[in-house]
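Recall from the previous lesson that a structure prediction takes nothing but the amino acid sequence as input. Here we apply that procedure to (Lyso)-N-acylphosphatidylethanolamine lipase from Cyprinus carpio. The sequence below is the only information supplied.
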Amino acid sequence: MSPAMKDETDTEQTSGNWSWWPSWRPTSMTLLKSAEAKILAYIQNDVWSRFVTLPNQNRIWTLKVTNKSARKHKDEGRVSNLLVQWLRKSFAHLNMPPSLSIGAQTPLVMIHGFGGGVGLWIRNLDALSRSRPVYAFDLLGFGRSSHPSFPSDASLAEEQFVTSIEQWRQSLGLERMILLGHSLGGYLATSYTIQYPERVSHLILVDAWGFPERPQPQLEGSGGQGSEVKRLSPSRWGKALTSVFSLFNPLAFFRAAGPWGPGLVNRFRPDFKRKFENLFDDDTMTQYIYHCNAQNPSGEVGFKAMFESMGWAKRPMVQRVHLLPPSMPVSILYGTLSWVDPSTGKTVVQIRGKSPTSITLIKDASHHVYADQPEEFNRVVESICNTVD
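The prediction returns the following C-alpha cells.
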C-alpha cells in the first residue's frame, strides 16, 4: 500500500479541543462512519475506499467506484497493452498514434457542496461508473476528511481548499480528470481548473454557488431631474440580526441544539429524506447529514470566510471565468426549481465567447439536481463524459 493511502480501518481522527462536545451532541466520527456505510452498501459496482494522506498529514476520505465488468477485462487489457508496446517498438517507423492503448478512460472526479459528503452521490455512483472510474471525496474540513483550521481571509481559505484538491490528485497519481462540482464544489472546481488547467479535460458545474456578483442596493425614486435619490437601507432590526448571525458559523445552531440536533435536521431539511425515500424508509440520510455537520466546524469556517452577508461570494467567480483556457470545455447544469439563478450561466457563456460552453436545465430539479432527478442527471453527465473519451 502506498504511504499516501491509509486503510479505512485506520483510527478516526478526533476533534481536538472539541472532543468533550459528544457528551452534549449525539455525534462522533464513528457514528458518521456507520451512517455512511449504510448508504454505501447500496453501491453495486466495486468500491475502493481509503483515506488519502496529503504531504501536511491531512487526510482526504476517498471513494473510487469502478464497473465490475472492468475488473473482468483488466487482465485482458494488460495483455493488449503489452502487445501494443511490442508493436510500437517493432514498427516505430510507422509512427503509431498514442491513442492506440486499451482501457484509458478519463476518470470522473465529483466534488460535493457545502455541508455534504460522498454519501450524497449514492444515486449516481453506479450509473456514472459504467464506462469509467469515478472518484468522490469529502472536501477538506467536511465529512470524514481532516478538519484543520482555516484562515479568515477569503482568498487564503479558497487556496487551502484548492491546494488540498491538487495534493489529493498528486497522491493518487491522476494525470487528467473530468471535474464535476456541485454548489460550493462547483466554485472550487472552477478555481482549481483556473490554476491547474492541464489536469482537467472537462469542467462540469452543477448548480454552482458563488458565481454572480452581489446586486447593488436598489434606488428609491425615479432619479429624474429634481428628484432625491436615496439608497434603501435595511431596518435596524435587520442590521442587528445580520451582525449577530455573522458571528456564528453557518451550521452552529445544529451543534448548539445538542441532543435536539438530529430532530432539527429532520424538521428543517425533510426534503433530504424524500429525495432518497426509494432507498431508505427511515432517517438514514438526515442522520448522515447531521453527523457530517455536527463535527468540529472546519470547512464550514473556510466557507464562512469566503462569503459575505446573505451568502454572496466575496470573490465572485464570474469575475475570473475569463482565466479559464479558451479551449477548456465547460458544461453548466441547473435545476429548474433551484434557488440558483441560471442567468449567471448565460453570463459565463457571453464572457467565454467562442469557447465551448453549454447550459443544460434539468426539469423538476431543485438545487440538489443529482438527487431530485438522478436518471436525467446521470444521462446528461454520462453524455458529457463520453465527449472526452
